[in-house]
Design brief:
It is a single chain. The protein is globular, with a radius of gyration of 16 Å. It has 4 helices and 5 strands, in the order E-E-E-H-H-H-E-H-E. It is an alpha/beta fold. Helix 4 links the parallel strand 4 and strand 5. The protein has a single domain, classed as 4-Layer Sandwich (Metallo-beta-lactamase, Chain A), CATH 3.60.15.10.
Length: 126
């Protein structure tokens, strides 16, 4: 098994949670990302954990993601950061991704679902 950490959407710079405002490297603001995983398995092929911002979100971000969220999160909206593009860069076709596990249903975790129409989506019922 091999696990790839993917940035499926660069977002605005945010201060670390729980940090005090004291200066220093440990307390510098950092860019936030839509963190996804691609898990290569021997039996089920590549499995995505979350999908980040999808290619359809990039066409009309204010409509797909919500204008308020776009203004707040300030996503870069780079097609090269989509899970679809990164899966291809790792040598897979979208159809190879047969399973997607969603950690939760926020738009920055589910936006790429439309890019993998053949995948079975797994999400906790709560």
């Amino acid at each position: 098994m091999r696990i790839h950490h993917l940035n499926c959407g660069s977002l605005r710079t945010i201060p670390p949670l729980g940090s005090d405002p004291a200066p220093g490297a440990a307390h510098r603001a950092r860019p936030a990302v839509c963190h996804c995983l691609l898990i290569e398995t021997d039996t089920d092929g590549p499995i995505l954990v979350d999908t980040g911002i999808g290619t359809t979100d990039l066409r009309q971000p204010d409509r797909a993601l919500g204008a308020d969220w776009v203004a707040y999160a300030q996503p870069v909206l780079d097609p090269r950061e989509s899970a679809l593009h990164q899966v291809a860069r790792l040598g897979y076709e979208p159809r190879d991704v047969r399973h997607i596990v969603l950690t939760h249903l926020h738009r920055d975790h589910t936006g790429g679902l439309a890019d993998f129409p053949h995948a079975r989506v797994h999400v906790h019922p709560d």
